[in-house]
Structures are given as C-alpha cells and as structure tokens.
C-alpha cells in the first residue's frame, strides 16, 4: 500500500522504515514541525515522578542531568522508548491515552508524596495537568517544544496516489481535513482509507471519508489495520 505519514519528520522516519519492512510504500508528508523551545528551565523541586504524553517532549531536551533519576511514567511505548534512549533511569509506560495515564498515576501515586513534573508540547490532546490537579496533585507543566503547522500543498501529487493515511492525534486529523479542503483534494481524500489511532482522532474527519480505528491506542494496533 502507498501510505501517507503525517507525523513530524522525527517520528515519521523510523515509522517509514517499519512500513517498508512490512512491504508498504510510505510517503512522508509532515503536517507538523517540532521546534524546541530555547532555555527550558525546570524548577529544582523534589518531584516524585515525571509524566510524559509526548516523545518529543523529552527528545528536544539537551540537559536532563538534574531529573534523569526521577521515575518517568509515559503514556505509551514511543514516549517510553524515547525516555530510555535519552538516559532516564527508571521508565515505564501505562494507559495509552491521557485519561488512562491519569487514572494509573492517581491509583499508584500519593498526592502527599511530592509534586509531579509534566513535560509536554504547547498543544496537547488532553488536559493532563488539569486532571491531575483536580485529583489533588501539585503539577508543574513545562513546555519544551511547539508543533508548528506545515502545508501539504507540495505533496498534492502524492496524496492523489495514496491508498491510506495514518493519523495519530486529533490535532493532526483536524489539520489534515483543513489542508485537504484548502488545496481541493477532497476527491482524493474520499478514496483514501483514514487509519486512526483512536475514535477521538476519527471524530475530526468528515463522516463520509473512509476510516478505520485501532482497537487500542497503540502503534501496533494501528499498523494491524494495514493487514
């Protein structure tokens, strides 16, 4: 299959290799560019844990010496692996989405044991900080990057030829739909299979567009829909 990858290049490149090994033809057409924020400062507090909902939130960090010993709890496998690759000492993944990660943190941590450090981008798919604060935790949200919108106009020809597109987030799905309309690619999109990580992602697409939703919000479940 000819598959469009809308993820930022940092995420799309390894995914493209995986798809090639599966016999597919990936086409990288990023909708977002990851831009690290300069001079990110993390308060020198005794955090009991770090929570992470985006691999890019730690990917862009240049100095983790002061926090790499703190247990880090990630939302999924990609963010977990990135934290491991960056050198965090104690890393685990739980939940698969913001709400389930929140539920895990609330059931396994004590709000009286110290504040939480939440590393994120400027835009997120859910209000992790708000959920945790409503559950009684002190939370410092530190924004480490911005995901800046890119245009699909230069990829119009590839989109016309595609069989499927992988969509990982509600924001990406919303941007995809807007770009398709802007560049008058609706006819092509109505033929493409939209493979979505979750129902929340699919909800940002026109109802008439073909779609499939992963059984669980994991990349493995998403790619299983290509079989």
Catalogue the unreliable spans: none
Query: How many domains in all?
Result: 2
How much is the average pLDDT?
95
Radius of gyration: 18 Å
Helical residue percent band? 25-40%
Distance separating the two termini: 10 Å
Q: What fold name stands as the CATH topology of the largest domain?
A: Rossmann fold
Query: Which CATH-level-2 architecture of the largest domain?
Result: 3-Layer(aba) Sandwich
How many strand units? 11
Assigned CATH class of the largest domain: Alpha Beta
> How many separate helices?
10
Q: Approximately how much beta-strand content do the residues carry?
A: 15-25%
| Most strands sheet | 6 strands, mixed
User: What class would the helix/strand composition place it in?
Assistant: alpha/beta
Which strand order spans the largest sheet, edge to edge or round the barrel? Answer: 3-8-7-4-5-6
Helix and strand string, N-terminal first?
EHEEEHEHEHEHEHEHHEHEH
How would you describe this protein?
The longest helix has 13 residues, at 9-21. The termini are close together. The chain folds into 2 domains: 2-31 and 150-224, Rossmann fold (3-Layer(aba) Sandwich), CATH 3.40.50; 37-147, Rossmann fold (3-Layer(aba) Sandwich). The strands form 2 sheets. It has a 6-stranded mixed β-sheet. A 5-stranded parallel β-sheet has the order 2-1-9-10-11. The relative contact order is 0.17. The chain has helices at residues 9-21, 55-59, 77-86, 98-108, 128-134, 156-161, 170-182, 186-189, 199-202, 219-224; strands at residues 2-5, 25-28, 32-36, 49-52, 72-74, 91-93, 116-121, 139-149, 164-167, 193-196, 211-213. The chain has 227 residues and is of the alpha/beta class.
